[in-house]
Design goal:
Structural class: alpha/beta
Largest sheet: 6 strands, mixed
Mean pLDDT: 90
Distance between the termini: 47 Å
Number of strands: 9
């Protein structure tokens, strides 16, 4: 079941409300996905120039429902936070209003209220202490309320997973939230992720986020050293397959093909149904001309999740390179159904159609690729094919 989660409105501005809003949001998203097994769409807006914009008022139900329907959700979850005592420099409580609404016409939203007293914050200094264990208890209460409204089986909830992968150190968690939500500068983010793991050496999600950030910055050697340290500390935990996957990405980009394949295979031993790792391994095999083995891994990924776009696109590219244009066309069409705005997909589709002799269809697909990327690499390739 897909649930859209929106940013909570707050009755105050500043770092303390922003951190608490995001702390609650992270734990709630974790609880909905890991403890309740829901497919969660996070519609919290990204920070602008390093600053999170807070909502001053709770949005109207019609506005929420419209946005959730665009995201393909069956339910929407939103609400507000009120910090108190009001007009006082010291914050000692946070009242939570939780709202849930179905996408079915005519059904009113459900409203629940909770109170959290596990924080001490000073708005004058931005100093904050949070009882993270008590915050997990609050999220458990909220999750049970969600389960009641969504008619989930309470006995099937894995409440012990609410904080899985997150930290029980309040200082580490605050560093983590600042890095994740409140800063845009990559170097500042990295510094705070490192502070988070220094405060809590077993904070797996901080390692994973920092590793992903380093890989995105193409600092592959630094990423590998950091991830090796994380893997040695977190060996045998739930996070190990994710760390091994990132290690594989760093290794393959450093030219260490054999090492990349080794760690990806190890990751699959621990989590055989990881679509991302299956696709990473398939791509590595394709790099060495092992097309049959690569195709097997892409199809394994599709067996795990037939609605995952990545293996459809990657399989389509592989089949185009193999000259199997009819099979490639089917794969790319399926990818376009899932991701209709990707210019590369229309370029690949047009290439297949051209090779199969369907020139009018090919021209339409190539024109679509050009329309979606008029000044980019894909648009240029499509333009050349149209001029042939």
């Amino acid at each position: 079941m897909r649930v859209a989660v929106f940013q909570f409105a707050v009755n105050a501005v500043g770092k303390i409300p922003a951190v608490m809003e995001n702390l609650l949001g992270i734990l709630l998203l974790n609880a909905l996905s890991k403890a309740a097994g829901l497919e969660v769409v996070d519609l919290t807006p990204p920070p602008r120039e390093g600053e999170v914009l807070s909502l001053a008022g709770i949005p109207e139900t019609d506005e929420i429902r419209e946005a959730a329907m665009r995201a393909g959700a069956r339910w929407a979850l939103w609400g507000g936070l009120r910090f108190g005592p009001e007009s006082q420099p010291l914050i000692r409580e946070m009242a939570v209003v939780l709202r849930l609404v179905s996408m079915e016409e005519g059904l009113p939203p459900d409203r629940r209220e909770f109170l959290f007293r596990g924080l001490q914050g000073d708005v004058r200094t931005a100093h904050l202490n949070v009882d993270v264990g008590a915050l997990e208890d609050l999220v458990e209460e909220m999750l049970l309320a969600v389960a009641e409204v969504l008619d989930l089986n309470r006995q099937e909830l894995r409440l012990n997973r609410i904080g899985e992968g997150l930290s029980l150190s309040d200082r580490a968690m605050v560093y983590f939230v600042y890095a994740l939500r409140l800063l845009a500068d990559p170097e500042a983010k990295l510094k705070l992720y490192r502070k988070a793991v220094s405060a809590d050496p077993f904070f797996s999600q901080a390692y994973i986020n920092a590793g992903q950030l380093l890989l995105g910055l193409r600092r592959y050697g630094e990423a590998m050293r950091f991830l090796l340290q994380a893997e040695s500390r977190l060996k045998g935990t739930e996070a190990e397959p994710d760390l091994l996957n990132l290690l594989g990405v760093s290794a393959v980009n450093l030219g260490m093909w054999e090492e990349a394949v080794r760690v990806w295979k190890r990751s699959l031993e621990l989590r055989p149904e990881s679509v991302e790792v299956l696709c990473n391994l398939a791509q590595a095999l394709a790099m060495r001309g092992m097309s049959r083995e690569a195709e097997e891994h892409y199809r394994r990924a599709l067996d795990v999740n037939p609605d995952s776009p990545l293996p459809w696109f990657s399989l389509g590219k592989l089949l185009v390179n193999e000259g199997r244009h009819r099979d490639a066309e089917r794969a790319v069409r399926r990818y376009i159904e899932l991701c209709p705005g990707d210019p590369w997909a229309y370029y690949l589709l047009g290439t297949c159609q051209m090779e199969l002799g369907n020139r009018e269809e090919a021209r339409f697909s190539l024109a679509k690729a050009l329309q979606l990327d008029p000044k980019g690499r894909v648009g240029e390739l499509a333009r050349r094919k149209l001029e042939e």
